[in-house]
# Entry
Amino acid sequence: MHLNQDQARRFFLAYQGLWPPQARRGKAGVLEHIRRVGCIQYDPLNIAGSSPELTLQARVADFRPAMLYELLYQDRKLLDGLDKVMSIYPVEDWPYFRRRREAARQRFGDSAQPATAILPQVRQAITERGPLSSLDLDHNETVDWAWAPTRLSRAALESMYLWGELVIHHKVHTRKVYDFARRHIAHELLAAPEPNPTDEAYHDWYVYRRLGGIGLLWNKAGDAWLGMREIKSRERTAALERLVGRGRAIEVAVEGLDTPCYLRAEDRALLEQALDGDRPAPRAAILAPLDNLLWDRRFIRRLFGFSYIWEVYKPVAEREYGYYVLPILYGDRFVARFEPGRDKRSGALVVKNWWWEEEVKPSAEMQAELQRCFRRFLSFLDAPALQIDAQLAARPDLRWLAEIASVAT
# Structure
């Protein structure tokens, strides 16, 4: 199969629910999207919405953060778990991560680990008192832990969580409160046998799943393949060859790319629909820094001509743009990026800075749609107002933004 870059972009965006954006609605729309892509990435930073919330608001017209919270901690249709690093995925996928949980049990359940000594007390406390966080336990000694030294109680709870004995019952801001998995996950899922008993079957499943996480992807090293334990380049290439050979994946040559891309065979109908349908009127969307669309930034640079780096971990002097900068999509191209913030007293959304992409000349139609996009974004955040400083308000190219903003002096 051969696609030019315009066709590849249209399918990619259609698959990601961004052609046009916000075509889904309600909690059903949230579930539909996450089931399509397998998982969305979690990150605790919340500058103007957390990364999973930002991912969903671009795709679900009436999305509010409470919808995700309910699906995770009340309806129990979604889970916090490791997939592409820390992620959110459907609860029915629980059996497929048995290998990962068993590996965590071998690593953290060894008697030499300091947390194992207090596991009986932790189990008793949860049994008697219900869901608990590390702050609810008295084991305050500092111990070495996988990521950094931490409190013994936290190491114990996280160990039990990683091997599947506990799940996250709910969160208080970013603090995790744990409970026994058996209280919240159906027995048939907990007792389900390993769906992929051989290494080959597991590799094929995981590579296929990651293709579904993005929609269209090449076989090059990058962040799109993060979190796939023990599946390196050789194993990934072999899995792709098997998937293509069995008719489960399609190899695609994309104009301007020097290596083949792949999509799932089950998505061919969506590809044909995206290519045959009328081009929709351009809509604007604000994307998350860890949006599935941006998982392979080198791929995005080649396909969309958009270079994006999340600069939160860069020293201030080395940042090209800002601490937490969000991309803006318009139609099938990235047109701008901006740095958001929130006013601590009023809750207003603050636009700290704005950058147009090279060669973008914002038409009246684009500016009108961007204004609508920001009004939707304010509604998603439940922000009472938008603020910009006088310097931004004075820019002729941002007059549309000034029309909906109060100007800070």
Remarks:
- The mean pLDDT is 95.
